[in-house]
Amino acid sequence: MLPTAAYIHIPFCRRRCYYCDFPVFVVGDRHNGATSANIQLYVEQLGQEIATQTNYHQPLTTIFFGGGTPSLLTVEQLEQILKLLATKFGIANGAEISMEIDPGTFDLAQIQGYLQAGVNRVSIGVQAFQDNLLTVCGRSHSVADIYAAVELLHQGGVQNWSLDLISGLPQQTMADWEASLKCAIDLNPNHISCYDLIVEAQTPFAKQYKPGDTPLPSDENTAQMYRIAQQTLTAAGYEHYEISNYAKPDYQCRHNLTYWHNLPYYAFGMGAASNLEDRRFTRPRKTQEYYQWISDGCNWQAESTTTTEDRFLETLMLGLRLSRGVSLRSIESEFGIDKLNSLLKCLERYQRSGWVENVDSYLKLTDPEGLLFSNVVLTEIFSQEF
Description:
This protein is α/β, with parallel strands linked by helices. It folds into 2 domains: 256 residues, Alpha-Beta Barrel (TIM Barrel), CATH 3.20.20.70; 75 residues, Arc Repressor Mutant, subunit A (Orthogonal Bundle). It has 16 helices and 17 strands. Strands 9-10-8-7-6-5-4-1-11 form a 9-stranded mixed β-sheet, with helices on both faces. It has a 3-stranded antiparallel β-sheet with strand order 12-13-14, with no helix packed on it. It has a 3-stranded antiparallel β-sheet with strand order 15-17-16. Helix 6 links the parallel strand 7 and strand 8. The protein starts with a strand and ends with a helix.
């Protein structure tokens, strides 16, 4: 299939959160795209990369500005990038154009300008509704900033917006988590993402905490947090459509579904990873190395090729994140009946345990227990020779 999705990485942040291992560049609390020469230079370099990309002649139906903190861009810088994408690839009517934003990094004129430029979906990084937990995470905003930011979204006329939360934070109690879920629901976003903290190597958290040690919640408590999120959000009318994501009807993130359906997509920017023609390529993660790569002409020859076996495993790894699961008919059609039968045999004991089920010819993980223990099921799949 031809790519119709593009991810744009904007690596700038006012601070680096203590759990973050993304490729980011810290500009400080007072800088944004209007006051930072680094941001303007990056936008120009990004344009050069976009210009070198092969055009597969299908207009974009989803664009996602992630980061980092894309709301540090000025409206003019965002418009510059969108115009480059429109000129290079075309942007389909009704395309979903998403943008991550952080509380305290934008004003009303800015959000209105983003909408006028074409953004029609906003994802706001909240993470917690307790000031002490925001401080523990190294976040640059307060709880008061969250409510002020949401008010700006309403004033600006944002119709489609999402909110992010993190469970399993240091010092986070079950009461904190339940309160954050309630606060999120009260704000009435169209979409809520609930991520479980992963203590990544080379992050400040990795230097302070070991998984399973206090003040991190126990594995039992984080599992219970997952169950509580599922129960609370589905009861409030949100569909649990992906392992970490909940949406009101018709508000699933179309861009992220591209990843979970293992479809091709463009990606641009420092550290961004693309998937084109069954070849994956991750750009350099450090600023000067990324700029040098662009100066050298964007060497696409370093891409790795996805084999049939890789694609089979990736299809399962990504598709089983979805509440609907993966189509058994598609598995048989693309990979053959022998692989399908081997897969079903491999998962027999998990079907008996209630973690895996076959519904309307879709293989899926049960909600919440199968999704909660998805790593166990996937480890079993990856250990087999199909």
